[in-house]
Amino acid sequence: MYIIMLGAPGTGKGTIGKEITKKYNLTQFSTGDLFREEIKNGTELGIEADKYISEGKLVPDDITISMVESSLSKADNLLLDGFPRTIVQAERLKKILNENGKKVTVVIDLSVPDEDIIKRTASRVICSNRNCRASFNTIFMPPKQEGICDICGSKLIVRDDDKPETTKKRLEVYYKNTEPLIDYYKNEGLLEKIDINIYSPTTKEDTTNKAFSIIDSRI
Ligand code: AMP
2-113+165-218, which class in CATH? Predict the structure, then answer.
C-alpha cells in the first residue's frame, strides 16, 4: 500500500500520517525528516538542501529524487509525507512504482485555510528524537508537560523553517509547485480531500477517523 499525504505546510500531514501508519502498519517516509537528518549530520547533501529549506524553497527535484529513489524502489507499504511535491516528482514516483509492479493506493489532501496555517506553524513544536518526531502545537494540541514529548519524553524543539516569514514563502511555493498535484491526482482518480476548518473536522481524532474511512473504502 502507498498512501500519499498532500497539503500545504502545517496542515497535519505528519501528525495524521503517524496515526495512519500505526493502524495500517505502514512506514512513514518523510522527505522533510530525511533532509533535517542530513542537515543535522552536516553531510554534503544536508549542506546543499539547507540552502533551500532555510529560505522556504523546495529542494531541487534532481537532489530530492536521487535521495529517495532507491528507498522507494525497495520499500513496500509506505506513507509518503511531503513527497511528491512537484509534478516531476509525481511522474518519477509513478514510474518507479510501475517498474516494480506497484501503484499509489490513495492521495489524501488535507485542506486548511491559509490564516490557520500561519497560526499552526508559528506554534508548532516537534520532538527532537529522530525516531519519534511527534509534532505538537503549543496552542491547539499542547504536550502534557511543556517542552517535553508526550510519547518519548525527549525535548521539544521549534523547526527553523516555521518562522512566519518562512511559512509565507513556503505557502507561495506550495501554491506554485505542489497545488497542481491536486488536479494531477484528481485526473488519476486517486484524490480524496479532507477539509479542516471551523465547519468540518477540526480535532486530530475527527481528521484521523475521516482518513481511516477513506483508506478503508480504497483497499
Ligand atoms: P516538511 O517537513 O515536509 O515540511 O519539509 C521541510 C522542507 O524540506 C520543505 O519546506 C522543503 O524545503 C524540503 N522538502 C521536503 N520534501 C521535499 C520534496 N519532496 N521536494 C523538495 N523539497 C522538499
Answer: alpha beta
